[in-house]
Amino acid sequence: MDLPTLWFWIVAALFVGYFVLDGFDFGVGMSLPFLGRDDTDRRVLINTIGPVWDLNETWVIVAGAAIFAAFPEWYATLFSGFYLALLLILLALIIRGVSFEYRHQRPELAWKRRFDWMITIGSAVPALLWGVAFANIVQGVPLDADHNFTGTFFSLLNPYALLGGATTLLLFFTHGVYFVALKTEGEIRARARRLGITASILTIVVAASFLAWTVLAYGTLLGTAFAAVAAVALIGSALANSRGREGVAFTLMATTIAAAVLALFSSLFPAVMPASNDMANSLTIENASSSTYTLTIMSWTALVFLPLVLAYQAWTYWTFRKRITRAHIDATAH
């Protein structure tokens, strides 16, 4: 395996980590209107991701940095062509992060509800737009001979891309609901399990449609294999949740998201940005990559630091592994 190919799959692995980890805390944020019947419930939900949500978001920063360093041509085309969609994602993440920190600064319920809605919207927008973006990358976008995007923001909102956005939105929502069931006790846990049953049915229908479209239109043998793994794991997660096996349901949903991301990257390979108007204008791992020297330095850096990051994240999740209940919330605090 040459270095550009290696870094293509490293970028894929970074997005797997991001979508699996930030995916469930997007889902928790989106679940606030459905599972939070009062302020104490909503504080329980927020506390399930309180110690980890910001750490989960670092994966997208590392993924973006990896694209910038390993595939500068891809980075330039992607961030210039998709700038409005990526700006909306960035603004949503900022609003969401600010809301986590400010909702408890005043005791009024109206104040808290405003920030709760900002958390919900700030979670839903990235969950939707990431799917739209990746579906467009797999499908291909119009590029000129200099690899500049020649479409518009609205040309990105095509049926395949919107179905991809709906798929990530529902996958992350269901993933988050499973996480709530895994991390809570009592009535919230029971409500999360019931909501997970309903959400999983809709998710299976939408995700199956998107994966089938991807396999039939853009699929490769490896991509089809990953799509099959995603489908089996998704059905298994729904069955596990219906039987009260929250840990199994959450693990299988994480497997579903990981396999789905790998299916998209497998369908994309060896391109990184196909040109829908003329394949000669496409960006590939060869014409978009950095020099061998740069990729070599990056590989040694990743070999040293990536295990440390993974170990720190594993330690964080282990430290905050216990379930959260309403009894843990101090009723006198705001």
Automatic annotation (TrEMBL):
Bilayer disposition of the protein: Multi-pass membrane protein
Source organism, top-level taxon: Bacteria
InterPro entries linked to this entry: Cyt-d_oxidase_su2
One example GO MF annotation: metal ion binding
Keyword Ribosomal protein found: no
Subcellular locations according to the entry: Cell membrane
One Pfam family of this chain: Cyt_bd_oxida_II
Keyword annotations from UniProtKB, A to Z: Cell membrane, Electron transport, Heme, Iron, Membrane, Metal-binding, Transmembrane, Transmembrane helix, Transport
TM annotation in the entry: 6-32, 74-95, 115-139, 159-182, 194-215, 221-240, 247-273, 293-315
GO BP terms in the entry: aerobic electron transport chain
Gene Ontology CC: cytochrome complex; plasma membrane
Similarity-based family: Belongs to the cytochrome ubiquinol oxidase subunit 2 family.
NCBIfam families: cydB
Protein name in UniProt: Cytochrome d ubiquinol oxidase subunit II
Gene name of this polypeptide: cydB
